[in-house]
């Protein structure tokens, strides 16, 4: 059977509500050959970019967005383009900083990931430095954290955090495909989130570096412990199964 | 309320059996009888009122729907005008009864989410916004626009043009504004016009174009959208509040259809002594395009759809906002620069 016919058969086997998911044209994987499409259409991007410089004065508020819209040559009312104006500013900052990471940090491709922890440390610190890119945005960052913790924004915030940790692990050259895929991303996200809260509480750059270093060390220790426990549980389970079989049970 | 009773009893006695035309709902397989009088009868009545209309749509004349009836395009605007002429006097009472008062919440939310008016702190030259409220005859959206811009944004310059095809509805609006504080301020003006053709309004002159529960009555919706695109400034906003033909939840949809086809014409009959107009209202809701289709029409007119292009979303999901489980929806479009 030819490949397209097989693909069609697989598609038709899926329940109808799932079919659009299988047909989605957007690639859900990283590709070096195909650059990601711009996350924001030009109008949104122009307004949001013009609004960020107003954040130090007006915070992550609809007022900043209004000023950005008029600066970009639009009208006050154009802010209706954003269903949630304040949070749109936050996600814009997060998304642009995440995508900028790939151009700011480049590791030699040939060398195998000898020390992934150092790479992750570099990536986290680079990303945290992105929060300092616009002067005086950092004192307003607790507002953004507060907005992200609102119930209606939590899913989008967590998704953005997951994208960030995924991006970092990808850039660090992590290619694992086992169950540690999830635990690595979750623990890295936790480390980053903690570091960002620490950074926004007014700590200096050296203190932040020390904080990140300590968290990564803990992560390594916890990760080792978790995988050790996992191995032990797996071994014991196999032993119990073998014991049951030796007793003649059909398992 | 007491004044309705004689009219209502009269109407109830006069109400004949339902007409032969009926229609089957695609979703719940239920037959709904249309009690809009058949065309000939309607035309006799129009003749009686000395309103000469062509007796039959000619062969090459394009047709459109008027409720579940098919009428020629040239007739629809006039018939919609007749419907709203007859409901104008108790339009607001009827809206309260039909939507159980929820239409006020929808309209409040609609205007609040649009946030009209320019706060003086964010602009150096206060000039206000120009708002065009289409099909806004009774002025309830316009009044909310002015209240919001004045009290929330402290903007005393923003003005509203209320446009309606129907002079009776505009008269209701004038009556309402006569007792409002905006009467002497020149901030509100009235325009009797068909929204498909607004020759008196300059291109690129309007900041905000709103149409609440009006666009489903238009004969050529795409033409009205194109006209909206023309009059809006670059960056201006098209916003539409409209009923949706079907709720997403099939069970709620069945209940909702019972309500709209069973109760609303009856309420119209009892309160306004006018079953046909209210039957038309619910049938026109049924004929209106779904949210996704209508968002597509707005995009086809050249507007940007908010939230549509945001990352992680595909198709036309998220280009509108459902209200009250999807009974009504807010659509927005932004004219690109």
UniProtKB/TrEMBL annotation, chain A:
Short name of one Pfam family: COQ9
Gene3D superfamilies: Tetracycline Repressor, domain 2
Keyword Repressor: no
GO cellular component annotations of the record: mitochondrial inner membrane
Record InterPro entries: COQ9_C, Ubiq_biosynth_COQ9
Pathway terms, separated by semicolons: Cofactor biosynthesis; ubiquinone biosynthesis
Subcellular location: Mitochondrion
One MF annotation (Gene Ontology) recorded for this entry: lipid binding
GO biological process, one term: ubiquinone biosynthetic process
Organism domain of life: Eukaryota
Alphabetical UniProt keywords: Lipid-binding, Mitochondrion, Transit peptide, Ubiquinone biosynthesis
Main location: mitochondrion
Family: Belongs to the COQ9 family.
Functional summary from the UniProt entry: Membrane-associated protein that warps the membrane surface to access and bind aromatic isoprenes with high specificity, including ubiquinone (CoQ) isoprene intermediates and presents them directly to Coq7, therefore facilitating the Coq7-mediated hydroxylase step. Participates in the biosynthesis of coenzyme Q, also named ubiquinone, an essential lipid-soluble electron transporter for aerobic cellular respiration.
Protein name stated in the entry: Ubiquinone biosynthesis protein
Upper taxonomic lineage: Eukaryota, Fungi, Dikarya, Ascomycota, Pezizomycotina
Automatic annotation (TrEMBL), chain B:
Reactions the enzyme catalyzes: a 2-methoxy-6-(all-trans-polyprenyl)benzene-1,4-diol + S-adenosyl-L-methionine = a 5-methoxy-2-methyl-3-(all-trans-polyprenyl)benzene-1,4-diol + S-adenosyl-L-homocysteine + H(+)
GO BP: methylation
Annotated stretches, region: Disordered: 1-22, 35-64
Xref: CDD domains: AdoMet_MTases (cd02440)
EC number annotated for this UniProt entry: 2.1.1.201
GO MF, one annotated term: 2-methoxy-6-polyprenyl-1,4-benzoquinol methyltransferase activity
Membrane protein topology class: Peripheral membrane protein
Biochemical pathway: Cofactor biosynthesis; ubiquinone biosynthesis
Predominant location: mitochondrion
GO cellular component, as recorded: extrinsic component of mitochondrial inner membrane
UniProt entry keywords in alphabetical sequence: Membrane, Methyltransferase, Mitochondrion, Mitochondrion inner membrane, S-adenosyl-L-methionine, Transferase, Ubiquinone biosynthesis
Xref: Pfam families: Ubie_methyltran
Cellular compartment(s): Mitochondrion inner membrane
InterPro entries hit by this protein: SAM-dependent_MTases_sf, UbiE/COQ5_MeTrFase, UbiE/COQ5_MeTrFase_CS
Subunit structure: Component of a multi-subunit COQ enzyme complex, composed of at least COQ3, COQ4, COQ5, COQ6, COQ7 and COQ9.
Biological role stated in the UniProt entry: Methyltransferase required for the conversion of 2-polyprenyl-6-methoxy-1,4-benzoquinol (DDMQH2) to 2-polyprenyl-3-methyl-6-methoxy-1,4-benzoquinol (DMQH2).
Family: Belongs to the class I-like SAM-binding methyltransferase superfamily. MenG/UbiE family.
Protein name, per record: 2-methoxy-6-polyprenyl-1,4-benzoquinol methylase, mitochondrial
Lineage: Eukaryota, Fungi, Dikarya, Ascomycota, Pezizomycotina
Gene name for this UniProt entry: COQ5
């Amino acid at each position: 059977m030819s490949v397209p016919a097989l693909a069609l058969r697989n598609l038709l086997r899926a329940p109808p509500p799932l079919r659009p998911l299988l047909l989605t044209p957007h690639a859900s994987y990283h590709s070096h050959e195909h650059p990601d499409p711009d996350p924001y259409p030009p109008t949104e991007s122009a307004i949001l970019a013009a609004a960020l410089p107003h954040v130090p004065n007006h915070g992550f508020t609809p007022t900043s967005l209004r000023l950005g819209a008029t600066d970009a040559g639009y009208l006050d009312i154009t802010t209706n383009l954003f269903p949630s104006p304040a949070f749109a500013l936050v996600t814009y900052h997060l998304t642009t900083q995440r995508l900028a990471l790939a151009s700011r940090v480049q590791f030699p491709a040939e060398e195998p990931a000898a020390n992934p922890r150092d790479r992750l440390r570099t990536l986290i610190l680079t990303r945290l430095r992105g929060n300092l890119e616009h002067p005086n945005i950092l004192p307003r960052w607790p507002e953004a954290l507060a907005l992200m913790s609102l119930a209606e924004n939590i899913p989008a915030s967590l998704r953005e955090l997951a994208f960030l940790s995924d991006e970092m692990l990808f850039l660090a050259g992590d290619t694992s495909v086992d169950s540690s895929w999830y635990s690595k991303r979750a623990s890295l996200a936790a480390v980053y989130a903690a570091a960002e809260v620490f950074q926004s509480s007014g700590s200096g750059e050296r203190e932040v570096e020390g904080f990140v270093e300590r968290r990564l060390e803990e992560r390594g220790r916890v990760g080792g412990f978790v995988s050790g426990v996992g191995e032990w549980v797996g071994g014991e389970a196999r032993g119990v199964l073998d014991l049951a079989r030796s007793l003649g049970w059909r398992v | 309320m007491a004044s309705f009773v004689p009219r209502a009893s009269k109407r109830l006695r006069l109400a004949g059996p339902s007409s032969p035309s009926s229609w089957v709902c695609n979703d719940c397989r239920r037959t709904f009888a249309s009690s809009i009088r058949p065309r000939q009868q309607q035309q006799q009545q129009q003749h009686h009122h000395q309103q000469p209309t062509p007796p039959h749509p000619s062969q090459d004349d394009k047709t459109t729907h008027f409720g579940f009836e098919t009428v020629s395009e040239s007739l629809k605007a006039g018939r919609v005008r007749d419907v709203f002429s007859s409901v104008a006097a108790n339009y607001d009472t009827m809206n309260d009864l039909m939507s159980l008062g929820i239409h006020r919440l929808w309209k409040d939310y609609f205007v609040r989410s649009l946030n009209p008016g320019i706060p003086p702190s964010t602009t150096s030259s206060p000039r206000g916004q120009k708002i065009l409220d289409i099909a806004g005859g009774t002025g309830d959206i316009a009044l909310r626009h002015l209240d919001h811009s004045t009290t929330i944004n402290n903007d005393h310059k923003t003005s509203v043009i209320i446009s309606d095809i129907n002079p009776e509805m505009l008269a209701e609006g004038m009556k309402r504004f006569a007792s409002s504080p905006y009467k002497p301020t020149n901030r509100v003006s009235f325009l009797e016009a068909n929204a498909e053709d607004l020759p008196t309004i300059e291109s690129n002159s309007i900041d905000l174009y709103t149409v609440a529960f009006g666009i489903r009555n238009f004969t050529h919706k795409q033409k009205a959208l194109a006209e909206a695109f023309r009059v809006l400034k670059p960056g201006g906003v098209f916003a539409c509040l409209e009923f949706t033909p079907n709720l997403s939840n099939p069970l709620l949809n069945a209940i909702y259809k019972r309500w709209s086809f069973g109760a609303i014409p009856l309420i119209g009959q009892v309160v306004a002594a006018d079953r046909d107009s209210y039957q038309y209202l619910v049938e026109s809701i049924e004929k209106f395009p779904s949210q996704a289709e209508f968002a597509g029409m707005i995009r086809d007119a050249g507007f940007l759809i908010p939230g549509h292009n945001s990352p992680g979303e595909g198709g036309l999901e998220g280009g509108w906002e459902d209200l009250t489980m999807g009974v009504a929806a807010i659509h927005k479009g932004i004219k690109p620069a």
